């Protein structure tokens, strides 16, 4: 066995003479579509985001595999599809829930999914290679967070708390543009303000809807100021040049037919990447999925690991031909839909044709726009588009030329001119669906396949080998994350096979594997 003396500072030798590894900063907003100047919408004044776009590369076709936050965030942190993880059902996991606590949305216990494939939060790989990883501060992965994922995940988490010259990966989450801020921040606007706002063509021309849209633009302006503060801190620390920055939204916009929707408005998100190479600027039409973010970061950091992601790196590469997405349960409503998007066209598969595209979500009823749509529907005054949205039936397949028809208003599925395109997309979509571990199961069957009587399985106990030079940990479990710390410490260190821990105080060893009980074992000196 190859043995390495373990450095308590977790530094890699590559930057002992000054940092050489790139830093990473993620600026993550919530519930936003392409409501930004770099996409041709200048309704909100966003000088900080605009400058980032000038310094970076604007991606015209970035997609989340799920149009709601928790499943999409599970994909970001693992580089895997929610339908592979088993995290595709919104609000399946509740951190505070006791074992077998029943979820009122689906009458099943709350659960943290147990994937079949090897899974690891990619920040563990960064930490194992000397990176300081922070999250400020939303996690919400629809599964238990790995205790080894972050050096600090809190409202105080910041790269400034790292050791000198230590490379970092820092995430800042901004709640100001969340769906709930539409009704919480709503105010009375003047007639001129409402008259000036441009609304998507499928919405009814109604002041209540216009008011919500104005509020969203006002929230985006507040977001821009918050982002400006973080970027200015980075520049003040002389770190801007050596930091790769991602700005993106966790999924599409806050309105009905945006969030929770498999249409472009729900899964296509704003995304800027400011690379260290300043020649890599402008705009790109390449397809990018959230499953690609984790492998891209590790690729840019020159870090390999022993098992693969489902995503593919887009660091100086363009290898993706299709992006996939899925919808399943949103709170109490279930609507199984799957989609594939190629360079120009998109195919949607509707698993249930006897229900409407509209799905009732109690939380969303607080929004004026939803109240207006409901009211117009009851009085039969809705426009054609939203009348179809509420229709009790939908076609099995929908085909759109999304490169020209962003709002997906013209379904081409019955047009023989596009038969060949439909067949190609159908083939690749169903291949992806068939390869899915959990995407073709209902939620109850999925849980039966994961757990026995909903009992969370336990991991085998680790072993500690004592040598003349120190301690070696034998985890005794496959594909398990291993952490350690001295008993007086708060933060877990990442343990890699072959690391030698210097004897000092009593030792604690932690084992983590998604879907299993977290195991902490004490070893006395």
Brief synopsis:
Helix content is 24%, strand content 21%.
Regions with little confidence, pLDDT below 50 for 5+ residues? 1-17
Mind describing the biggest β-sheet? Answer: 9 strands, mixed
Strand content: 15-25%
Number of separate helices: 13
Radius of gyration (Å) = 24 Å
Determine and state the CATH class of the largest domain.
Alpha Beta
- What is the averaged pLDDT score? 94
What would you say the CATH architecture of the largest domain is?
Answer: 3-Layer(aba) Sandwich
Number of structural domains: 3
Alpha-carbon distance between the two ends: 23 Å
What level of helicity do the residues show? 10-25%
| CATH fold label of the largest domain | Alkaline Phosphatase, subunit A
User: Which term fits the overall shape?
Assistant: globular
CATH superfamily of the largest domain: Alkaline Phosphatase, subunit A
Structural class estimated from helices and strands: alpha/beta
Number of strands: 23
């Amino acid at each position: 066995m190859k043995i390495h003396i373990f450095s308590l500072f977790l530094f890699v030798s590559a930057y002992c003479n000054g940092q050489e590894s790139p830093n990473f900063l993620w600026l993550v907003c919530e519930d936003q579509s392409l409501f930004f100047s770099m996409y041709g919408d200048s309704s909100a004044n966003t000088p900080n985001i605009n400058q980032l776009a000038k310094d970076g590369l604007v991606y015209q076709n970035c997609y989340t595999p799920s149009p709601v936050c928790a499943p999409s965030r599970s994909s970001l942190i693992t580089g895997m599809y929610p339908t592979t993880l088993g995290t595709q059902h919104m609000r399946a996991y509740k951190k505070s829930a006791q074992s077998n606590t029943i979820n009122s949305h689906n009458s099943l216990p709350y659960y943290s999914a147990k994937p079949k494939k090897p899974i690891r939060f990619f920040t563990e790989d960064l930490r194992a290679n000397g990176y300081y990883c922070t999250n400020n501060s939303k996690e919400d992965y629809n599964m238990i967070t790995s205790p080894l994922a972050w050096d600090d995940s809190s409202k105080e988490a910041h790269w400034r708390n790292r050791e000198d010259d230590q490379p970092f990966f820092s995430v800042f989450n901004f709640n100001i543009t969340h769906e709930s801020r539409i009704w919480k921040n709503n105010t009375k606007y003047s007639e001129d303000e409402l008259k000036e706002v441009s609304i998507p063509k499928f919405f009814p021309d109604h002041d209540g809807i216009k008011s919500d849209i104005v509020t969203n633009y006002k929230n985006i302006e507040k977001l821009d100021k918050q982002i400006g503060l973080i970027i200015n801190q980075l520049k003040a620390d002389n770190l801007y040049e050596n930091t790769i920055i991602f700005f993106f939204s966790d999924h599409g916009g806050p309105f009905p037919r945006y969030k929770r929707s498999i249409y472009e408005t729900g899964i296509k998100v704003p995304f800027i990447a400011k690379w260290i190479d300043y020649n890599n600027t402008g705009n790109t039409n390449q397809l990018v999925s959230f499953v690609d973010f984790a492998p891209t970061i590790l690729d840019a950091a020159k870090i390999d690991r022993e098992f693969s992601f489902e995503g593919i790196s887009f660091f100086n590469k363009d290898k993706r031909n299709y992006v996939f997405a899925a919808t399943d349960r949103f709170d109490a409503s279930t609507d199984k839909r799957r989609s594939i998007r190629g360079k120009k066209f998109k195919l949607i598969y509707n698993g249930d044709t006897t229900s409407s595209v509209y799905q009732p979500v109690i939380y969303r009823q607080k929004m004026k726009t939803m109240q207006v749509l409901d009211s117009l529907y009851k009085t039969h005054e809705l426009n054609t588009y939203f009348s179809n949205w509420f229709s009790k039936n939908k076609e099995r397949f929908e085909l759109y030329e999304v490169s020209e028809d962003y709002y997906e208003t013209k379904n081409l599925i019955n047009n023989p001119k596009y038969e060949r395109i439909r067949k190609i997309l159908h083939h690749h979509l169903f291949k992806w669906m068939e390869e899915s571990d959990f995407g073709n199961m209902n939620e109850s069957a999925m849980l039966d396949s994961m757990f026995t009587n909903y009992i969370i399985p336990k991991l085998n106990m680790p072993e500690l080998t004592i040598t003349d030079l120190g301690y070696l940990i034998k985890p005794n479990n496959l594909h398990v994350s291993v952490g350690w710390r001295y008993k007086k410490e708060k933060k877990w260190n990442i343990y890699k096979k072959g690391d030698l821990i210097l004897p000092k105080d009593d030792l604690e060893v932690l084992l983590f594997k998604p879907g299993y009980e977290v195991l902490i074992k004490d070893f006395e000196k």
